[in-house]
Specification:
This protein has 3 helices and 17 strands. The protein is mainly beta.
Length: about 290
């Protein structure tokens, strides 16, 4: 089992009226991995109110050999008149908790490695999708926007299933370099689903790719009105293709990327000292939803 401990290692106050606090964050673990940093949740803009919220369990691979899809997170899809939002529910809750804790105790809880660091905002009026990606070990956020385009769906009339006690039909598509199968219900006639899998005849309750890399499956539906918000974070804007290249390079050269963030990674071992510094040759498993 991987152990991850986050420490506020050193707080150095520079003398003078313009004193600045510098905090070095150290991570100790038995296996190197990408871990998200805290983002403040105090400031945000309310864009809309959702009329329906769907919670999906999102299961995905931890490694190339992880056929059981051992990583999982809960992703919320909020549907509103003008906007839809899709994000990690537990990550948002932990960010909110940490924002409060840092104000009172200067301590915070580590973000689990399985929490998903991207979120999507769909602007219905402008047909625009904005994708926000949080970088590991740093508060930096990168964002790109694209026109909202639904996949081209092929309906499979003879295949049916039941998800959350809803009678579901099946449709397939090729999107983002992957073949997807979705299970949608006509009982909830909205053309939305998890991630970017929109445009079918009813609400998508389950989606899976053909190579057993990803599964989204609905585990909850609520009609309680909730605000659809956008956090007031500093975002670096990129073109989508530039982001995809950046992300791939980040995973390929993970050790060098971590070094450049300023984080200190200690790998626990059986040596006399009990740990060693992260090898800069380390690379992280890379398997994006969209190739």
């Amino acid at each position: 089992m991987r152990i991850l401990i986050t420490l506020l290692a050193s707080l150095m106050m520079l003398a003078g009226p313009a004193a600045i606090a510098q905090v070095t964050v150290s991570y100790a673990m038995d296996t190197p991995t990408f871990t998200l940093a805290h983002e403040d949740t105090d400031k945000y803009e309310t864009l809309d109110t959702c009329y329906l919220n769907v919670s999906y369990q999102f299961k995905y691979r931890n490694s190339e050999k992880d056929d059981s899809l051992s990583f999982d997170d809960i992703m919320d899809l909020q549907m509103g008149k003008d906007y839809n939002a899709f994000f990690s529910r537990d990550l948002r809750a932990l960010d909110t908790q940490n924002t409060k804790e840092l104000k009172s105790t200067m301590q915070f809880s580590t973000i689990p490695e399985n929490y998903v660091g991207f979120d999507l905002l769909f602007n219905h009026k402008d047909s625009l999708t904005t994708v926000t990606n949080r970088l590991p070990y740093t508060s930096q956020v990168i964002e790109y926007s694209e026109q909202s385009e639904s996949p081209e769906w092929t309906y499979i009339p003879d295949e049916i299933a039941t998800v959350m006690d809803y009678h579901c039909h099946v449709a397939t598509c090729n999107y983002g370099g992957r073949n997807w199968k979705v299970y949608y219900t006509n009982d909830i006639p909205v053309p939305y689903g998890p991630w970017k899998l929109n445009g079918v005849k009813g609400l998508v309750l389950k989606a899976e790719d053909s190579e057993n890399n990803f599964i989204f499956e609905a585990v909850g539906l609520t009609q309680k009105p909730q605000p659809i918000i956008r956090y007031d974070w500093s975002r670096k804007k990129m073109k989508k293709e530039d982001w995809k290249k950046y992300e791939q390079e980040m995973y390929k050269n993970a050790g060098a990327f971590v070094r450049n963030t300023g984080a200190r990674i200690l790998i626990m071992d059986n040596s006399e000292q009990g740990f060693h510094r992260l090898n800069e040759d380390w690379s992280q498993y890379y398997n994006p939803l969209e190739r």
